[in-house]
Amino acid sequence: MWQRTVFLVLGCSACVACDSVPGTDAHAERKAKRSVSELLIDPTTADFRNVVVMKSAVCGEVNAKNKMGAFVGFSRFVVPTDSFVAQVEQEFDLVDLLDAQASCRTSTGYSACSRALELSAQRDSAERFERDWNRHCGPIRARRPFQPTLAAPEPVPDSPDLTETVGEPVSAASTVGESNSTETREVDANMHPDDPASDDDTEAE
Questions:
Q1: CB 11 within 8 A of CB 17
Q2: Mind listing the pLDDT tens digit for each residue in 13-56?
Q3: Distance separating the N- and C-terminal Cα atoms of the chain
């Protein structure tokens, strides 16, 4: 019984210390997370997800707080296992770069050109990150936050066509005309001298 207990304790200790054994996936993941944390403003708030140890790099996503104390959202990262130099995806806006370059051409101040140089460096960094991500992490796709699919609204039924349901409307003028023509026919029948019904009544008298 005691031998089984010793083996169980040793097995648990070995699992806990797996991340300290070079060459294991746990060790590579631990080193990659530490390298990524060094690039963050507040490393203590780092939140990792979708971490995958590939053949040549460790890939995943990280979220942390900024200078204002708010989480900035998950960004991709890649850490090559041959150097463990981390790269974290940075936001880049091409429109801002074009505006800064235009201001630099038309302005004599240094601030506009300095901003253009800064954005140019961000563009180069973003392009380099995409190349490294596609080379090392191409087989995987980082999952994004779950976004439920909203049901499409039910179509509003069209209003019924009254002409099909009730029939064509009858104008008041046509109704009056038909009534007058009926009365005229009745008067003509009573006053016609050749009416057989009138002769019968005369003979009867």
A1: no
A2: 445 556 778 889 999 999 999 999 999 999 999 999 999 999 89
A3: 140
Kindly tell me the burial class for residue 100, based on how many C-beta atoms sit within 10 Å of its own C-beta (0-12, 13-18, 19 or more): buried
Distance CA(77)–CA(27), nearest Å, equals: 17
Backbone angles phi, psi at 78, to 5 degrees: -140, 135
Which pTM was predicted? 0.57
**What is the Cα Rg of the chain in Å?**
44
Give burial (CB, 10 Å; 0-12/13-18/19+) of 72: middle
Largest pairwise CA distance in the chain: 142
Residue 148 has pLDDT above 90, yes or no: no
* Whole-number Å distance between alpha carbons of 150 and 136: 35
Rounding to the nearest 10 degrees, give the CA dihedral for residues 23, 25, 30, 32. 90
| Secondary element (H or E) of residue 79 | strand 75-80
pLDDT tens, residue by residue, 52-66: 999 899 999 999 999
Residue 85 · residue 35 · CB < 8 Å: yes
C-alpha angle 124/126/132, rounded to 5°? 100
Adjacent-strand bridge partners of 79: 58
Tell me what pLDDT residue 202 has.
47
